[in-house]
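seq:
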Amino acid sequence: MGLTRYGGVMGVLENKSRARCFYKYLSKVYDRVNSVVFTRPMRAEALAMLDLEGTERVLDVGCGTGFGTEGLLAYAEDVVGVDQSPHQLGKARERLDERTGVSFSLGDAENLPFEDDAFDAAWSSGSIEYWPRPVLGLREMRRVVEPGGKVLVIGPNDPQSWIGRRVADAIMLFYDVEEADEMFAAAGFVDVEHKRLSSRYKSDLAIVSVGTVPAE
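struct:
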């Protein structure tokens, strides 16, 4: 299944080439699937935790088809989406490219194509579970956000049943609040807080984690 990653063994989709192939086909129906597991109310609840004032430049890491990016545009002046899947980016551009204040780049969450301190804040929803080295991805988000800025990540909550955890971990990264706290601490964030999000059909479906980039 792969090399050891944070908290266990890499799932089949924590391989970048497999994930790109997976999203080549999933991108065609992604928005319909995603609307069940990550709803607009969940997005609004998470956005409120980022505490944006409206003038910030924000990075959306693993932006996918642009659902999170679209939400960010209601709170920020300038939003940049980055994703490793050209097919997902194509859908994001179809959704948002005609709007002002948004741009997209092809790139890897674990090696972001941006300068240090290039953004006021960063967001990532539904992406960390595919990163082979999630702490490295979090460190990259910290690197590109200026000191004092916030980084918010939404990932899947660990299933409660033993069988559910085994199945989930065979596919991609699932984690609990304690592991989220450990990852954010290892990546160098301070003032970290976590909140569980619930959808229409399942409680505690996802974990929102927000950390602050420390002053140097």
